[in-house]
């Protein structure tokens, strides 16, 4: 941390104290040992490791990108959302940090137990509302409750926005976010114990010329069943999923039913653009293959067979007489 780094002037003062005898090496060592003692607040218990916090940060950075795309399309305005911080704090501290009048969405995330909060700064919330109702995205100083129409508009917006959280969380849990409540006063929220640890993900949000914060509060009780999924080892394992026999059967069935172009090539040649432009009916183009040579059958652009031309029920056809092997695309 920056507080543990000495400036050049402090280093010079220490060296000067040693050289003049004002401080001995033993005193300096004891002072350094004393600095290793840190105050620990038992009310602010750390329930998540640094590794798990980094995983949560990656997940919600992806969520921020998805939200940016979603809100840009819905609001038809410039939107930029980015993760500023991911902290674990007591629930009481989070409630005290949000404005007295704000916009808070309460979501259930089955099959996980408990609720997730999404708090939107009033500047951002009312800018969104103004844009959705055809305005220019102006910020209002409104602090009273939303009307029924405004509540319905905002509820629809944030219900659909949380579909992106389902996608962002797909690697650690399959959730189905459901909006259960929209509140404007955080003091009315009594979800969990005030001392319960929560993870707060803060997003810096810019909409047009308005900026503000969006905070997502996730209680520890919600994440507890999937805490092992937040480890780096789990992420590495999930990135190396083996294909099941059922998936192989489906893949084989789809490959067999795929349509690919097959061409019987009589021969080829090179001519100039000038000759091509002056080609007329009855002109003869000499190819590089003899008439009694077998034709090359190409699957896509890859030569696969040799065949001889003929007719089948008065229709032109070819009969495969040889299979071509070799090249990177063959199994043998």
From TrEMBL:
CDD domains: FliM
Listed GO CC annotations: bacterial-type flagellum basal body; plasma membrane
Gene behind this protein: fliM
Domain Flagellar motor switch protein FliN-like C-terminal: from-to ranges: 254-324
Protein name: Flagellar motor switch protein FliM
Keyword Nucleotidyltransferase part of the UniProt annotation: no
Record family assignment: Belongs to the FliM family.
Protein location: Bacterial flagellum basal body; Cell membrane
GO biological processes: bacterial-type flagellum-dependent swarming motility; positive chemotaxis
Membrane-topology annotation of the record: Peripheral membrane protein
Chain segments annotated as coiled-coil in the UniProt record: none
Gene3D superfamilies listed in its UniProt record: CheC-like, SpoA-like
A Pfam family matched in the record: FliMN_C
Keywords, in A-Z order: Bacterial flagellum, Cell membrane, Cell projection, Chemotaxis, Cilium, Flagellar rotation, Flagellum, Membrane
Keyword Membrane applies: yes
GO molecular function: cytoskeletal motor activity
Domain of life: Bacteria
Organism: Psychrobacillus soli
